[in-house]
Amino acid sequence: MERLNNRGLDEMRPLEFVLGVAPHATASVLSCFGNTRVICAVTIENDVPRWMKAQHVPGGWLTAEYAMLPYSTLDRKKRDSSAGKVDGRSVEIQRLIGRSLRAVMDLEALGERTVWIDCDVLQADGGTRTASITGAAVALSIALNKLVATGELEKSPMKQLVSAVSVGKLNGTPLLDLCYVEDRDAEVDMNIVMTEGGQYVEVQGSGEEAVFTAEEMSQMLTLAAKGIADITAAQKEAIARADQPSAADFAALQNLFGKR
């Protein structure tokens, strides 16, 4: 089976993490999975939600918000504020992002702080939730490292990296990291969230007017594990360059959005 851009069945789309795209956030990343681009920003506040205070819950909290900007899709998407409510898909995804990041956090070690994860989709070409989780993990790691550097935390409460990738079955063939066209036509669509240590955080899978066997699911999980390993390597490279001058990242922004 041939894929767009002659990509292998077990090959990720080009991955890129551009740092510092939202200067007022504690840390921010433009997470790029091929043509899917999501701004993932982390803001840390020295306070906790009222319910934690009322219930005397120790430590801090992490929560996420997700939105697709009106121009992120081919047809303009109405803002949630115009509709007067957040649509169900956005609620489901932002809860997934929050669960995925909390799974690798020691919230008690975070102290009385709230971590806000904001994921805004600039351009959607499939896998916006996986790009959001993956980019948010990079931004979160960088933000917490800043608190360690300033002495506000003794060590980072982030226990390990987490990332996500899509897999699916198209024309009977298992594929890794589906773009929109592949996702639209796939018989099976799955989103896998895993830690860098290979543990599963969440597995979302369904047949689209189709079914799949245990063997096919095993094949897709194997593809996902390979993808997560590739993603983790890219995440670590991005985090490692966080203390370096950001000229290269701004050059990458120009390269991504400067073309007409």
Distance between the termini: 32 Å
Strand order of the largest sheet: 1-2-3-5-4
Look at the structure and give the mean pLDDT: 91
**Rg:** 18 Å
According to CATH, the fold-level topology is Ribosomal Protein S5, domain 2
Query: What is the share of helical residues?
Result: 25-40%
Strand content: 25-35%
Order of helices and strands: EEEHEHHHEHEEHEEHH
Largest sheet: 5 strands, mixed
Total number of domains: 1
SSE blueprint:
Layout: E1 15-19, E2 27-33, E3 36-45, H1 50-54, E4 61-68, H2 80-83, H3 88-102, H4 107-110, E5 114-123, H5 128-149, E6 162-170, E7 173-176, H6 180-185, E8 188-195, E9 200-207, H7 214-240, H8 247-257
Parallel strand pairs: 4-5
Antiparallel strand pairs: 1-2, 2-3, 3-5, 6-7, 6-8, 8-9
Helix pairs in contact: 3-5, 5-7
Features:
single chain; 260 residues; alpha+beta; Ribosomal Protein S5, domain 2; five-stranded mixed β-sheet; four-stranded antiparallel β-sheet; 8 helices; globular
Structural account:
By secondary structure, the protein is an alpha+beta fold. The protein has 8 helices and 9 strands. It has a 5-stranded mixed β-sheet. A 4-stranded antiparallel β-sheet has the order 7-6-8-9, with helices on both faces. A hairpin with a 4-residue loop joins strand 8 and strand 9. The longest helix has 27 residues.
